[in-house]
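Researcher: For the annotation table, I need structure tokens for CocE/NonD family hydrolase. Please keep the output clean. Sequence:
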Amino acid sequence: MSRQQTWSAGGERIEILKDLRVPMRDGVELAVDAYQGEENRPRPALIAMSAYGKELQALALTMPPQRRPSPMWDGCIEAGDIARVVREGYVHVIGDVRGTGDSGGVMIGNYNFGGVSQGQDLYDLIEWVAAQPWCDGNVGMIGISYFGSMQVLAAAERPPHLKAIFVSGGHFDFYETTYHGGVMWFMPRAAREGRGGDSGIAHTNVRSRMQEVHAPEELKKLVDARLRDPDVAAWPNLVHVLKYPKNREFWFDIVMNELDGPWYKERNPITLAANIDIPVYLQIDQGRGWTVDGHIDLFNVLKGPKKLDIGAYPPMQSRPWIEEHDKMFRWYDHWLKGIDNGIMDEPAVQVFVEGTREVATGGQWPPRDIEYRPLYLRPRRKLSQEPELMGPEHAAPDGFYQAPLTVTDQVETISWTTAPFEEPTEMIGTGAAHLFAEIDQPDTNFILRLWDEAPAGKRQLITTGLLKASHRELDEQRSTEGNPHHPHTRAVPVEPGQIEEYVLRLYPFAATFLPGHKLVVELMCNEPMADEHNALLPPDAYHLPVGRPVTHKIYRDAIHPSRLVLPFTKPRA
């Protein structure tokens, strides 16, 4: 039963309509709370929907925003600054998706694909909100990450009263969210299981998609096959999830689907975005390459009014989320309130450039003209614009041996470094790393990170690239210079002892290397648990280590031109 409450602090009063029941077309009811000002008048509404629990989002009224690495940071408090939303003249509607929190129904698989589409539920919710006496019929949406992805799913259904959306930090290509270059990433586990600094999904009635579509005997065979992967078998948490999947249903589904395909494609908002014709503002900060990629892909698909805003490092926003609200309210004041504030007169794309700390603007991504140029790996751990002239008989390969983390806690790293830059050198776009490598096992990870190293030694991460060796197959039709694509639809074991060319895609970035700074590229097959970058991310934001001992030899000679291919911007007039 719904009830009315009042919240007040510092002379500010908010009227709260608690536990409103919203009927869906199949009879299931979703639970939402509505926060509004005291004056009894209709306002535009901003809807925030997720599986993380509406009661958790209410902490935005009482908890100061926390930045990583605060122990109070909780990655799931993402619905926005409730008090400010109300102060700006909007109704803030926060609710639970089906099968979670106080809502009814069943949620099957991530984003409820395999059950009732969350986009369908969001359509019904938006139209219900628009008809309420406290709403003036103009509806937008709010929230980052999961909440951001929900906005795209909603807009693809084209509800008549959804006038615009503002998406920050959403996750779109769901395979690329969970497997970076084919290497399993642990952070989605936190959002679903509630580990490593996240409350996780507010489970009430959720089911595994894999358990829905496979008979128990068939599923057991699939689980046994997955456990034969030495990387999985060496990681205790994964063994546990596969043996005891109950209450870890969504993470179980992700672990069981290590290749891209229909299970991921049907839940990919980018494939649905061609239906969207309302205005869309896309915002993402640097340092989380995989989500920068998704925002760019989505921007390129959208056909209506759109903006792409790539912000500054570091990668994680506060929880409760408060950033980007100034931009968001300018966007919604224009599209929901009809205020001519000039936002549509500004460039469609704006990108913060690390180093110079200026903003590059343009009509497309990248916002400036670029040319791809190589930096070659050379002997003595050097990076150079000139290729190596000696053959492999003289330029012996670099290498490293990585023991499994079951027997060591040491993560081995090899690096190459440029000479100090003599003048400011700007790069904006995606990149590639071509590595000619020999390994003595059927598989490994290649994890490459680019750093900007200042003269005093302080470093900032610029971008990363990851590739599981067995996923080295390229999509030749989609791949271009500096922008390779891997289909990830099959795994092809490596022949030990054979030199292969591995092409890693470097996630989009924007940086200027200042005079005296160096570009450092690091290569490893496992990640350090904490360093200058990882300390800014939740504790679970690392990748599945290699579960077997591997010797890696990196050839960089006249026959094997291992190199980076980077997006240097052309000189401006």
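Researcher: And a one-line annotation?
Model: The first helix runs from residue 54 to 57.
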